[in-house]
Every structure is written in structure tokens, then in C-alpha cells.
Amino acid sequence: MAKIDSFEGKTALITGAADGIGAALAEALIGAGARVFASDIDAEKLKETAARIGAASAPCDVSDEGAVAELVEGAWSEIGPIDLVCANAGVIVPGSILNVSQEDIDFIFGVNVWGIVNVCRPYIRGLQEANRDGYMLLTGSEHSLSNPAYLRGAPLHLYNMTKHSVLSIAESLRAEFGSEGLSVSVLCPGPVESGLSENSETHRPARYGAQGEVDFSKVDPAAISNLGELYISAARAAEIALRGIREEAFVIPTHRFEKDDVDARYAEIQEGFALLD
Fold first, then answer.
1. SS (H, E, C) 112-132
2. What three-state secondary structure class fits 184?
3. Which of 39, 115, 131, 237 is deepest in the core (most CB within 10 A)?
4. Residue 16 in 3-state DSSP?
5. Which of 110, 107, 112, 61 is nearest to 205 (CA)?
6. Which of 28-37, 94-103, 221-230 is predicted least confidently?
7. CA-to-CA distance for 205 and 207, rounded, in angstroms?
């Protein structure tokens, strides 16, 4: 499988790169000597970010399969064969599975799940045609690993579903294409300073109607009051991500407390197996 010990001279394509973790990844990679092609649905913000950090760029809606195929081809042509793809674009849609609309489902799965699949397909095919190794960093979430305790009372059902899917996609890619030289990591950020909520509302297709608010009524008030202390900068998240890539970590968490939720889930799984004894 591909190993990236140094980013000097490497090429990277990043989706969701206009701000937040995506922009921080682009800036960190350029700072480490890589050539970066940045993309985002927000054309104006992307243009500003790309100019600031010195990246090539093109706007793209990752839920559009054809547009993403053109993006990968264009990036490959402009900066050279791509060593690293950071499939980072994502949105959040609040609501319980009991009352979310089909429009909610289409929007969040279109970006968070199909948006990743859409970039995986042309990239991996490109690697196969060129007989090259490659690396994919898929941005999941702490919600890829568990239903975080501090937010468990908040109905974020669709977000949990899509981020669990990201982990599964990564496992499948690694299993099928690892022997062909594809390495895969899943970035699982906890609270990170970004425009996730605002961008999700701004770029929600108008035909889907207004986005609902997160219902925190069943969340422990203490958890909400302490939430601000958990946030890290997007730059710090990018730093952690790049270290994880260099170490070939499959799962790259950003916060130590995520392990508590993972351990709790594992304990419940062990209890189930104990019933077989």
C-alpha cells in the first residue's frame, strides 16, 4: 500500500476545501511542500481561500457524479497524478428518523455518502489505469465510531447514519484495493471550529425547503455548557490528520474523549458475545 512519509512534492485533491478542515488541510499540505487542488461548492469562498494559500481550484458539487469525475480528471491534468485525495466535503442535517423528510435524506446522503463514493470511483480508476499507488483520507466524524455520549439526546440520526457509512466505505476500499496499492484513513473529528452548520444551511438546495433546528431538549445541559471547551481549531485537526497519514493510521481521531464512547460501545458488543458462552 502507498505510504507517505513526506508530503514534499506530493499532489493532493481536497473537496470541501473553502473553509474549515478542508481549507486547513490544504494549507497544511502546501506548507509541507505539496501541490494542492482545492474544490468546494462555494465558488466565491473557494476562490478566496485558494488565492490566499496558493492552491489550484475549481468549484464542484460532490453529489453530482459527473461533475466530480470531471473534477478528478481536471485536477490530475493540472497538478499531475494525484497522490492523496481528501474526501472532506460534508453537511449536517438535524432531526429524528421518525420525522425527517425525504429531502433531508437525499441532501445529507448525497453529500456525505455519495459525495465520497463519487470521488473514490474516478480516483481509483485513475490509479489503476496509471498503475500507481494512492492514498485516500475520508473525513468521517466521532459519529463514525459511536453515538457520542454528550450529544446522545440530540436527534442527529441522519448524520450518525452517514458518518457510520463513511467508516464502512473506508473499510471496503481498504479490503478491495489495498493489495493494489491504495491506502485509506478515516479522519474522525470531534468538535472542530468550522462552518459546518452554517454551510449546510447555505448550500441546502432551495427545492428542499428550510433546514430544521437541532433539538437539544433531551441533552444534559451540563454537556451543552461544556461543549465550547472541547473545540479545537481546524488547523489543529489538519495537523493531527497529516500525522495520522504519515503513520498510516486507519482511524484518526482528534479528541481523546472519543475513546470513552468507543470503549462503551465495545463493552456492549462484548456483553452480547458473552451470551453465547
1. HCHHHHHHHHHHHHHHHHHCC
2. strand
3. 39
4. coil
5. 107
6. 221-230
7. 5
Distances (CA, A) of 111 to 62, 190, 245: 6, 19, 23
58 DSSP β-pair partners: 39
- Strand bridging mode 35-40 / 134-139: unpaired
CA distances 117 to 122, 133, 188, 277, Å, are: 9, 18, 18, 40
How far is residue 270's CA from residue 220's CA, in Å, rounded to a whole number?
Answer: 27
What DSSP element (H or E) covers 67? helix 65-79
pLDDT in tens, 183-218: 999 999 999 999 999 999 999 988 988 888 888 888
pLDDT greater than 90 at residue 225: no
Q: Is 159 one of the catalytic residues? A: yes
Domain range summary for the chain, segments of one domain joined by +: 11-274
CATH superfamily for 11-274 is NAD(P)-binding Rossmann-like Domain (3.40.50.720)
Contact 196, 20 (CB under 8 A): yes
d(CA 113, CA 161): 9
Q: Choose the catalytic residue: 159, 208, 231, 266.
A: 159
Mean pLDDT of the chain: 96
Q: Is the pLDDT of residue 69 over 80?
A: yes
- Does the predicted TM-score (pTM) go above 0.85? yes
Please report, for residues 43, 84, 214, the alpha-carbon distance to residue 14 in angstroms, rounded to integers and kept in the order given: 14, 8, 28
Largest CA distance in the chain: 61
Check if the beta carbon of residue 102 is closer than 8 Å to that of residue 115: no
